Amino acid sequence: MQAMAGESSWWRPAPHAVGHELAELLRSARVRIGLALFCLILAKGATVLVPLVLKRIIEVLGQPAQLAAAPFALLGGYALLRFASTLFNELRDVLFAPIAHQTVARYAERTFIHLHRLGARFHTQRQLGGLLPDIDRGTGGLAFLLGTGIFTLVPTLLEIGLVLAIMLSQFAPGYAAIIAITFCAYVGFTLAMAARRTTWQRRVNKLDSTAKTRLTDSLINYDTVKYFANEDLEAQRFARLMTGWSEAAMRNQRALFLLHVGQSAIIGAGVAAIMLLAGRAVWAGDMSVGDLILINAYVLQVCLPLNSLGFVYREVRDAWVNVERLFSLLREPPEPADVLALPDLQPGPGNVLFDQVSFAYVPGRPVLQGVSLHLPAGRTVAVVGSSGSGKSTLARLLLRFYSPGRGRILLDGQDIAGVNAASLRRAIGVVPQDTVLFNDSIAYNIAYGRPGASRADVVAAARAARLHDSIMALPEGYDTIVGERGVKLSGGERQRLAIARVVLKNPAVLILDEATSALDAAAEQAIQQALEGLASQRSVLIIAHRLSTVVHADEIIVLERGRIEERGSHSALLAAGGFYARLWQLQQQLADEQRTHDVF
Predict the structure, then answer these.
(1) Calculated CA dihedral for residues 292, 294, 299, 301, nearest 10 degrees
(2) What is the full DSSP assignment across 211-272?
(3) CB of 331 within 8 A of CB of 21?
(4) Which CATH class for the 15-334 domain?
(5) Is the distance from CB of 554 to CB of 569 less than 8 angstroms?
(6) What are the extents of the domains in the chain?
(7) DSSP H helical segments within 118-221, as ranges?
(8) Could you give the 3-state DSSP secondary structure of residue 572?
(9) Looking at residue 241, what is its pLDDT?
(10) Has this prediction a pTM greater than 0.70?
(11) Where residue 455 falls among pLDDT bands split at 50, 70, 90?
């Protein structure tokens, strides 16, 4: 994503697309929705009939001669209508609730799957702290639009229509006209004010996501904050974001205040006009007290839904904004090759060929330029060079996180651009420089290399990685939780766990990406032994800065500024006296100085 002041790269509202998605959801569950709407109509019918029965009860109670039996039947009917209204409303919720819950669950799952289908370019730009709230608000907004939105808007409009029809049939047209005018004024005012509020609601959401991004980023870098004693700096940066959020929220609240006051004023004016008209008719003898009570009940019955209609409309606008953001994320295109139904990679011995490969992360700034190298099956090739020379990019291209701008990459004679990415990655194992683990048990993290592996297989892999004894020294052994990103384990333990995971995977091609660069000499030696056992009988691509780790390679490629400067065995490159020989001498000199320093 862009910087905090900028707009999100995938924030592209598309209301028509949102409406189309919701319409498709409703069509897919039309039978159950139809039954729910039928229950809703029955509930509203019972609600609208209640004032009519109440009016009749009052009229009968005013005539003592009819008190023998009629009031009891009317009172029973009154109670039954009240119960029917509640019963059918609850039945409506029971019928519709599974649709809303299943839809939210399905979209949460769909979003999760889609995020994993998006390519490396998206995930190197996204900000996790802001992305997660957007997903949460989007699924919550979807539930609201499907549930409360539909079953409040529709019944409110239905109830107002029924009340208007009864008023026209029972009383002078003026009463229905006042209700209609009040309704139109209320709706017009709400639409105008809510449109203004939407701008502020979007800003509040954006600032909220930005603040959560800052919070997440700061907590992830907890150690760095402590190293530099910058707690106050972090607090100040977060406070500035929260101040901006607070100001936007207050502006949003003021707009909401004006909306509420205006809605109440319109309703109050409508109620006053109707009651004045009805009171005058009663005073003139043109209307009974029962009629006045009926009109009052219907006025209240219209005004209460109007209030809820205003609330629901405001919430619908907010939910719509949130759902737009979720659907914009779902429209983010996956990697082009992952969309196609490509064939699986055919298993082979692990023969890798880079053929005139060129690549740039940013147009105009090439990282690799016409690189060709051959990793024969069962052999070891090392790529060395200074930082930024393009070494790790070779691994990313082989794993097809990115596609070459020019040239091609073959694995066992198959162009990797034409095979299924998952099958390609199943054939390749990676031991990275920085091993990041799931916040789960050691056993789970090792077994991630081959889901479904038995505990015996996990233990065997740990033994091969020289990790078993360290695990058994822990109180909970293989069930020890490693913490977020594996922070409860040392760097050497995390590296050995990564090796165990790859042992369990048993790939044909192994990539060692600076696998020991961050370790001390003792840990490096132990892990180097484990790596040698892992590398036997496999094709191995070693990416390294420390030359002492690649002297055993069958071929060493020296990469500088995206081009191959030298290639050959360790001894041949030393004899050539080129860049590799100078770098070797420099590193040996530094190692000697370090050993001398350690002695004294």
Answers:
(1) 160
(2) HHHHHHHHHHTHHHHHHTT-HHHHHHHHHHHHHHHHHHHHHHHHHHHHHHHHHHHHHHHHHH
(3) no
(4) mainly alpha
(5) yes
(6) 15-334
(7) 120-125, 128-144, 150-170, 173-220
(8) helix
(9) 83
(10) no
(11) very high
